[in-house]
TrEMBL record:
It comes from the Bacteria. Pfam families: Cyclophil_like2. InterPro entries: Cyclophilin-like, Cyclophilin-like_dom_sf. This is Cyclophilin-like domain-containing protein. Residues 43-150 form the Cyclophilin-like domain.
Length: 154
């Protein structure tokens, strides 16, 4: 009787991961499926870093504001933050999230964007938006300049 249960769980898992999605990547641990993404370039001086933004209303509303340049500030020795020019859409956002190093999240109550470069725990109000691939290089580049330009990767 264990085998049918295992097969049922396997089939359910296949349905949950969205087999056949276009441009899919795995969601962070706090989300349970594959999702569509948008590639974005983030420039710090002459250094350019790839960012992958998830397919959700919060990320879409940030993408609609691109290109833009902002000054990043350090927050709590764990994240680099900035306030977008326009408020972001938080429709369907989770109650909170558990960020990993490299995650880009919106902190809903304040409306700011956080790029995590150190471990942090679960927090109510965090909305997963994407990931930066080379967070160590990104933080190192920020030692020379805190001015960052976001643009869609065409």
């Amino acid at each position: 009787m264990k085998i049918p249960l295992i097969i049922a769980l396997f089939i359910a898992e296949l349905g949950a991961v969205g087999v056949g999605c276009n441009k899919d990547v795995e969601k962070p641990d706090n989300m349970n499926a594959h999702i569509q993404t948008t590639r974005v370039k983030v420039a710090v001086g002459s250094h350019v870093f790839e960012v992958i933004l998830y397919d959700n209303p919060t990320s879409h509303s940030l993408i609609e504001q691109m290109p833009f340049t902002v000054e990043l500030e350090d927050y709590a020795g764990k994240e680099k933050i900035f306030q977008p020019k326009q408020p972001l859409n938080k429709t369907g956002a989770p109650k909170g999230a558990d960020p990993n190093v490299g995650d880009i999240m919106c902190y809903g109550p304040w409306g700011n964007i956080a790029i995590f470069y150190d471990e942090a725990g679960y927090a109510n109000g965090l909305i997963p938006m994407g990931r930066i691939n080379d967070v160590d290089g990104f933080v190192k580049a920020l030692t020379a300049s805190s001015s960052v330009t976001f643009k869609i990767d065409n």
